[in-house]
Amino acid sequence: MTWRDRHGNALTDYPRPSVAVDVAVLTVRERQLHVVVVPSERGRALPGTFLHPKENLAEAAGRALRTKAGLVDLTFHQLRMFDNPDRDDRGWVLSMAHSAAVSTRSLPASTEFVLVENSRPTTSLAFDHDDMVAAAVFDLRDHYARDVDPARLLDEEFTLLELRELYEIVFDRPLPKDTFRRHVIGSLQGTGATSTAGGGRPAELYRRASNSALPASAGSFLLG
User: Would residue 31 be called left, alpha or beta, if left means φ above 0 and alpha means ψ between -120 and 50 degrees?
Assistant: First the structure.
């Protein structure tokens, strides 16, 4: 039996939008923030696709990453719905934007990137994907203000300098060395080993503590 409202209309009697998913995959390469892009009919775009019948949004996002960008086993999460009625000139399309951050080491050699500066792609992307990237950058900063390198963009062991440089890339501003150390040191565990990879004096290597959550004061410092 078909459901009908009090006016006698079924769900199919109402206009319905198409539903899409798009995924902003952020990474750090050459000491700068980048986003993964793929070719599309309208130029470079985020990996995305339309929702298929009996498919949930996460399944569609995983399929888009796999078929459009060759990325598998990627951890991602929803950002928000982009619902401007005019966002797609092909018709009425809602898109649930997703975000991920991964180490460049885990990406295929054929992956294409666009540099991100001031929270936005330096080359304009298709549709409203520039805005999606900006939302993903702010989401990344929120996560990095609460935990030590939660996306594991660094190796398991790292120096304080390497960690600070990563945070300067994510937050797009210089961070005072001593203040940064004071805010993060309680969330780190010393390894007893040192590294001379950057030249100069040996620097102590750290790893994330079992509880790598940052104090609230660190979030205030990082987010300004």
Answer: left
d(CA 153, CA 166): 8
Extract long-range pairs of 216-224: CB within 8 Å, 24+ residues apart: 217/183, 218/145, 218/183, 218/184, 218/187, 219/145, 219/146, 221/179, 221/180, 221/183, 222/141, 222/144, 222/145, 222/167, 222/171, 222/175, 222/183, 223/141, 223/142, 223/145, 223/171
The encoded tokens of residue 6 equal 């009090």
- Neighbouring CB atoms inside 10 A of 182's CB total 14
Of residues 69, 76, 72, the one with CA closest to residue 47: 69
Which residue shows structure tokens 């399929």? 63
20-68: per-residue pLDDT in tens? 999 999 999 999 999 999 999 999 999 999 999 999 999 999 999 999 9
Cβ proximity of 194 and 204 under 8 Å: yes
Return the structure tokens found at 78.
């929803």
What's the DSSP call for residue 153? -
Which residues make beta-bridge pairs with 189?
207
Taking the C-alpha atoms of residue 157 and residue 141, their distance in angstroms, rounded to an integer, is 21
State pTM to two decimals.
Answer: 0.93
What six digits make up the tokens of 76? 């991602």
Which token pair is 56?
């949930």
Collapsing DSSP to helix, strand or coil, 176 comes out as: coil
127 in Cβ contact with 42 (< 8 Å): yes
